Amino acid sequence: GQQLNQSPQSMFIQEGEDVSMNCTSSSIFNTWLWYKQDPGEGPVLLIALYKAGELTSNGRLTAQFGITRKDSFLNISASIPSDVGIYFCAGQRIPQGAQKLVFGQGTRLTINP
Amino acid sequence: DAGITQSPRHKVTETGTPVTLRCHQTENHRYMYWYRQDPGHGLRLIHYSYGVKDTDKGEVSDGYSVSRSKTEDFLLTLESATSSQTSVYFCAIRADRVGTDTQYFGPGTRLTVL
Predict the structure, then answer these.
(1) Is the CB of B107 inside 8 Å of chain A's CB atoms?
(2) Of A78, A62, A72, residue with least CA distance to A92
(3) Is the pLDDT of residue B24 over 80?
């Protein structure tokens, strides 16, 4: 089945550093979503993007809907220990109907204090 | 919190036995989804529902069936569990609110098939 290509697969950074991750696809998407998952829990929505070129922030998080509609980026500024977790991108190709999401494989973020 | 609960949270079963997982929501959302999560695969859609008794297949539906007899409950059944169905299963609801249309996930059920 189709999946989004998410990179990097893992990141090891120092506390206070900025983080960037992205998702790409060969297909056009109409919605991009970014989720964070902590161990033993379900994914939690961070940011939702609905228009090409859209740039949206949620605190220290900023995400962009790529202008080609085939990619999306998530940036985290000044990382803190609670940012540790797995980040997933998800996309919806068809704007109408059942909102069948396609997910990336995830980016595992580890922060060294 | 989108008012989603899943039961059981953990289950160990044997190959060939039937298993039913339950998803319960309290906010009367029309759309509900079942995903499985496996290392290296992210989340993959198994089945979804767009109303009572209205369901359809997702990407990885083989070996699974679903039922929705009430708006608040969406059941996922493994008729005869196999080891390849060992996974973490997540239920989600679609919340379509002004300015946003997205999915919120439950806490998950970890299923081990021996």
Answers:
(1) yes
(2) A72
(3) yes
pLDDT tens string B27-72 = 999 999 999 999 877 899 999 999 999 999 999 999 999 999 999 9
Average pLDDT over residues A27-49: 94
**Closest in A33, A45, A106 to B42, CB measured:** A106
Read off the tokens for A61: 């998080």
Cβ separation A104–B104 shorter than 8 A: no
Which chain A residues are within 8 Å of B108, Cβ to Cβ? 40-42
Chain A residue set in contact with B, beta carbons under 8 Å: 1, 3-4, 6, 31, 33, 35, 40-45, 48, 50, 88, 90, 98-101, 103-106
pLDDT in tens, A46-97: 999 999 999 999 999 999 999 999 999 999 999 999 999 999 999 988 777 7
CB of B81 closer than 8 Å to CB of B18: yes
Question: Cα separation of A65 and B113, whole Å?
Answer: 40
Do B44 and B35 contact (CB within 8 A), yes or no?
A: yes
* DSSP-derived secondary structure for B3-60: -EEEE-SEEEE-TT--EEEEEEESS--S-EEEEEEETTTEEEEEEEEEETTEEEE-TT
